[in-house]
Amino acid sequence: MTTALATDHHAADHAAAEARSVELDRRVRLDPGRFRMLTGDRPTGPLHLGHYFGTVHNRVRLQNLGVDLFVIVADYQVLTDRDVADRLTEHVEGLVLDYLAAGVAPDRATVFAHSAVPALNQLMLPFLSLVSTAELGRNPTVKDEIAHSRQSAVSGLMFTYPVHQAADILFCKANLVPVGRDQQPHVELTRTVARRFNERYAPAGQPVFPEPEMLLSAAPLLLGTDGGKMSKSRGNAIPLAADADETARLIKGARTDTERRISYDPVGRPEVSSLVLLAALCQDRDPHQVAAEAGDGGSAGLKRIVTEAVNEHLAPLRARRAEYARDRGLVRQILRTGNERANAVAEATLVDVRAAMRMDY
Ligand code: TRP
Q: Cα 61 from chain centroid?
């Protein structure tokens, strides 16, 4: 296959995935109680506004609709692209605090770390037996991560982590996985593992695992303050935990252009448009409307609008963060409770799996 054909093929894939996601979102809103959703993050540092509007905001929305939410702190996955899991406890607790501040409700959602759930990890063994090394080697996200890895050699964990991620999703029989586009190959692999497990081991008509559906985030990408992709490693991010003054300072320093008339044109004026988009996301408005309002005010005027919008949107998050942060033991306790719940669910699934595999001696 030529590169051009491969690109076309991917574009068609993505368009189809987007169309499925719109339809899926409609079904979720009609009957949220039918869905269990699992998603999460690697604990590598504080979440920023890109994460928040990319996925976290959407998780909270779905939780509040009545979807059963599982949020995984993927601590083993930190080891896939670096040799040492630096400051892990701090990052794990910080991530849980970010979730709680964003509105993940500990009495409704299950927040847990996958290293704390042995039965989840045991699923990795039967799942590994269901995929070929050739399939693993073709995963485009893994290939990309290998190319940018901070490890001197490709570890076995790096090569197989999508199978581990299948265990993350299937241990709780989640049927909904809201993620960004880079995670699509992993969700597809998860569906393959579920299907193959059911075909090989489950009695006809009684599947052990659902084939989970991927819900692509609708929010377009936010740029960092230097005009590149917002990312904590580039030092261009606006952290979710930043206070109002720090947020104002970061927005003030964001790259723009010298044209006074503000417009929303993500291709022609990416930096200005990203700021317009940020205000629009905060106010749940159309970016064109925000741009029209900013009018001829130039970058300084736009930045004032954006700062106000962000700080207003984040005010309730900051209040919640202050509440939870008052007692660090509380965050740890919420994680422990989540781990316990996840363990109960994983053990029940492992019983089903061992029975299906005739390993229930
Ligand atoms: N791979 C995801 C990331 O890097 C994190 C993750 C781990 C995840 N397990 C998951 C996401 C299961 C969704 C479902 O962001």
A: 14
